[in-house]
């Protein structure tokens, strides 16, 4: 089976936000999959996706601190038409990545106990974000 679902996430402020529940709520076919893969793709160039620690909220703060250290806004960027946070957001999105591929088993994502799906919002004032969820697998 193959399914395709468009997920519209609400606008989030700059930072790292757990969106696992948003993704799970939007995918109707997950529980019918015995074994398969969920591919998530973000349709934006200034935000990204990652999978990481879902329990301690200080992880989200540290992610933002580390990314701002790696990609400072103070560099002499040439692409500045959309504001000083735009080009650094593009670089961060390229470093973090635009997709995740996650295993499905018996109708559930096979994530580790402390793993969650993050929207990494790299802009100061971004709008809602769009994800494409594609499932490929064998049904029950």
Short description:
It is built from three helices and eight strands. The protein is α+β, with helices and mostly antiparallel strands. It has a five-stranded antiparallel sheet, with helices on one face. Strands 2-7-4 form a three-stranded antiparallel sheet, sandwiched between helices.
Describe the 3D structure.
The protein has 140 residues and is α+β, with helices and mostly antiparallel strands. The protein has one domain: Jelly Rolls. It has helices at 20-26, 58-70, 86-96; strands spanning 2-9, 15-18, 33-42, 47-53, 99-105, 108-109, 115-121, 129-139. Strands 1-8-3-5-6 form a five-stranded antiparallel β-sheet, covered by helices on one side. Strands 2-7-4 form a three-stranded antiparallel β-sheet, with helices on both faces. The chain is elongated. The termini are close together.
Mean pLDDT: 97
The number of distinct structural domains comes to 1
CATH class: Mainly Beta
What do we call the CATH homologous superfamily? Answer: YjbQ-like
Instruction: Report the sheet-strand fraction.
Output: 35-45%
Give the C-alpha Rg: 16 Å
Might you state the CATH topology name? Answer: Jelly Rolls
Uncertain spans: none
Order of strands, main sheet, comes to 1-8-3-5-6
Got a strand count?
8
Q: Which outline best applies?
A: elongated
């Amino acid at each position: 089976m193959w399914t395709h679902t468009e997920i519209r996430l609400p606008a989030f402020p700059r930072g790292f936000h757990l969106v696992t529940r948003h993704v799970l709520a939007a995918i109707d076919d997950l529980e019918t999959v015995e074994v398969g893969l969920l591919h998530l793709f973000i349709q934006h160039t200034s935000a990204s996706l990652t999978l990481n620690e879902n329990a301690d909220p200080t992880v989200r703060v540290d992610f933002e601190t580390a990314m701002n250290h790696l990609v400072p806004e103070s560099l002499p960027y040439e692409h500045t038409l959309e504001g000083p946070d735009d080009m650094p957001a593009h670089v961060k999105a390229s470093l973090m990545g635009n997709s995740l591929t996650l295993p499905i088993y018996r109708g559930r994502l096979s994530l580790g106990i402390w793993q969650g799906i993050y929207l990494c919002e790299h802009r100061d004032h971004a709008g809602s974000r769009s994800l494409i969820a594609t499932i490929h697998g064998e049904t029950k």
